[in-house]
Design goal:
Radius of gyration: 19 Å
Distance between the termini: 42 Å
Structural class: alpha+beta
Largest sheet: 5 strands, antiparallel
Mean pLDDT: 79
Number of domains: 2
Strand order of the largest sheet: 2-1-5-4-3
CATH superfamily of the largest domain: GAF domain
Helix content: 40-55%
Shape: globular
CATH architecture of the largest domain: 2-Layer Sandwich
Order of helices and strands: HHHEEHHEHHEEHHHHH
Low-confidence stretches: 1-9, 11-32, 192-202
Strand content: 5-15%
Number of helices: 12
Length: about 270
């Protein structure tokens, strides 16, 4: 994921966001320069479907007292990153997919918003100890995840990251939900392209997440290699990726390419 510029990165310095607030500190914003509706319209104007998640993540950083944002699809228990405001936000999203824990994973499972206002101590750190340690090491000390979809189905999550502990205010939550609504519309309604309009089941997001199908293929291969079920195969994939300092997706690439084979552990 290519960053927009150093000043826009998580915890970066300089640029317009710092003129409006202390970076990443919820509740510290002064009145917004832009009307949220106007900023939302500007973000989607002229965008191709593939550009929408990243543009709306960038809009979130402009409108909210957060330092980063990402969008992930819900895919067979593994969050699939489809857009982020910068490299660090993308990395923290991939971190949750690898670990199988964190606000993003919880929000997708419960279809309810999950807010972790302080990953450095207390119940948020205790709830996801490994994720909290890894996230704070990357400069993220607060994370907020909103499910995308409706009461019947969750298609993904919209995730916001702060560099300091704190809670989002009511007005901030209203803006976050406006952005989440726009993302839900994009993820559920936009076709992949003109050739696919009207074709049953054709959504542009299939193309965005195509590479992540390798995770499911890798899980199947690990199941065959070890004679285990899908949940255990995913746990093995995640555990080995974490131990090697890699993402679950990177490890899946190696499994599918036959560069990595799992063997039964001997006592």
């Amino acid at each position: 994921m290519r960053p927009r510029d150093d000043g826009a990165r998580l915890g970066g310095s300089g640029g317009a966001p710092e003129e409006r607030r202390r970076p990443g500190v919820p509740g510290s914003a002064v009145p917004h320069r832009k009307d949220p509706a106007e900023a939302l319209a500007e973000a989607v104007r002229g965008a191709t479907p593939e550009q929408l998640p990243e543009r709306l993540c960038a809009a979130a950083v402009e409108l909210l007292p957060v330092a980063g944002a990402s969008v992930s699809l819900r895919s067979e228990g593994v969050p699939v990153l489809v857009g982020a405001s910068d490299d660090t936000a993308a990395g923290v999203a991939e971190m949750q997919a690898t670990l199988g824990e964190g606000p993003c994973v919880c929000a997708a499972e419960t279809t309810a918003a999950v807010f972790a206002g302080d990953l450095t101590a207390g119940q948020d750190m205790a709830r996801w100890p490994v994720y909290a340690q890894q996230a704070t090491g990357a400069g993220v000390r607060a994370a907020y995840s909103l499910p995308l979809g409706d009461s019947a189905v969750c298609v993904g999550t919209f995730d916001l990251y702060g560099t300091d502990p704190g809670e989002l205010t009511g007005p901030d939550l209203h803006i976050a939900r406006l952005l989440a609504s726009a993302l839900t519309t994009a993820l559920m309604s936009l076709p992949r392209g003109e050739e696919e309009i009207g074709r049953a089941g054709g959504f542009w997001l299939d193309g965005l997440a195509a590479g992540h199908s390798e995770i499911q293929q890798a899980i199947g291969m690990i199941m065959a290699q070890l004679g285990i079920d899908a949940d255990e195969a995913l746990a093995r994939l995640r555990g080995h990726a974490f131990a090697c300092g890699r993402t679950a997706l990177e490890m899946a690439h190696d499994v599918v390419a036959h560069r990595k084979r799992f063997h039964e552990e001997r006592a």
